[in-house]
């Protein structure tokens, strides 16, 4: 057999076993690097980030981030359990932190490690706005969007090294992880997700915030404020990775009622704005 054929068969075999299912869409997604390898790296990076940044504790804002975070995490668990994904969050180690930083930014790393920057609070305003951002970011994590990006990078690397799967090669893996999550020298500056992943995270996020008791229409209002803030002084990290287009806002508005309907299945009938 020619080398190329062997390589192809090997690659197909590797891809066949290296898939995950997105519980929200039912779609099979590429997972060349399993979460069992990604989570420990994410947890380590998260701890390092907290050490190197000023974590806000004991304030009303810090308590709000934790409070909303716990509600979104609980909503995720309720949805997953009700849809046949019991145990999906077993290796999650949820954590919610607010850091003192003027950047308009927030993110959730794999395994439920969340950071909000104080710079985003004037735009999120109340709890429902925080829930909208949190729901969206948690949705990226639950749908393994980072893992798919990391797998795509790994896939390219496999091509580059002609068949060496390199999964056991730690420095290489770390490098791919850093690239996929925009970590390393630029911790917390996430690379933009694809438009598909953004839409998916918007839609899942609406359901999560609705089950958590927040009116999903607050997400559309949040993105309006984001859009209005685009010309402001604060570094627009979040906006650069999350363009607040009219299409996005229109989609969110049209999905709000299905998110409320989903929440009603869980007995949530009133929605806080
Ligand atoms: Zn996003």
How is this structure best described in words?
- With about 270 residues, the chain is an alpha+beta fold.
- It has one domain (about 35-265).
- The protein contains 11 helices and 6 strands.
- The chain has helices spanning about 5-15, 35-50, 60-80, 120-125, 125-140, 145-160, 170-180, 195-210, 215-230, 235-240, 245-265; strands at about 20, 30, 55, 95-100, 105-110, 115.
- The strands form 2 sheets. Strands 3-4-6-5 form a 4-stranded mixed sheet, with helices on both faces.
- Helix 3 crosses helix 5, helix 5 (about 125-140) packs across helix 9 (about 215-230) and helix 8 runs parallel beside helix 11.
- The longest helix is centred in the N-terminal third of the chain and has 23 residues, at about 60-80.
- The chain is globular, with a radius of gyration of 19 Å.
- The relative contact order is 0.14.
- The site of zinc ion (ZN) has 6 residues, from helix 5 and helix 8.
- Belongs to the peptidase M48 family.
- Its cofactor is Zn(2+).
- Keywords: Hydrolase, Metal-binding, Metalloprotease, Protease, Signal, Zinc.
- One of its GO terms (molecular function) is metal ion binding.
């Amino acid at each position: 057999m020619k080398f190329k054929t062997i390589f192809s068969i090997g690659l197909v075999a590797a891809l066949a076993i290296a898939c995950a299912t997105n519980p929200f869409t039912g779609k099979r997604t590429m997972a060349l690097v399993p979460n069992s390898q990604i989570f420990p790296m994410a947890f380590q990076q998260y701890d390092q980030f907290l050490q190197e940044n000023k974590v806000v504790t004991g304030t009303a804002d810090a308590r709000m981030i934790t409070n909303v975070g716990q509600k979104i995490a609980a909503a995720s668990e309720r949805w997953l359990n009700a849809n046949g994904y019991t145990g999906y969050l077993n290796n999650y180690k949820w954590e919610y932190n607010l850091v003192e930083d003027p950047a308009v930014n927030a993110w959730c790393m794999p395994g439920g490690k969340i950071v909000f920057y104080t710079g985003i609070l004037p735009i999120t305003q109340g709890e429902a706005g925080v829930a909208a951002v949190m729901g969206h970011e948690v949705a990226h994590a639950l749908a393994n969007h980072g893992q798919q990006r990391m797998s795509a990078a790994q896939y390219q690397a496999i091509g580059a090294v002609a068949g060496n799967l390199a999964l056991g090669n730690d420095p290489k893996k770390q490098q791919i992880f850093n690239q996929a999550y925009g970590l390393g020298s630029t911790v917390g500056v996430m690379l933009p997700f694809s438009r598909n992943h953004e839409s998916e995270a918007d839609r899942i996020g609406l359901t999560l915030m609705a089950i958590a008791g927040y009116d999903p229409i607050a997400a559309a209002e949040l993105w309006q404020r984001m859009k209005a803030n685009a010309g402001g002084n604060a570094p627009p990290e979040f906006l650069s990775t999350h363009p607040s287009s009219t299409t996005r806002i229109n989609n969110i508005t049209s999905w709000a009622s299905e998110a409320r309907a989903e929440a009603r299945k869980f007995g949530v009938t009133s929605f806080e704005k």
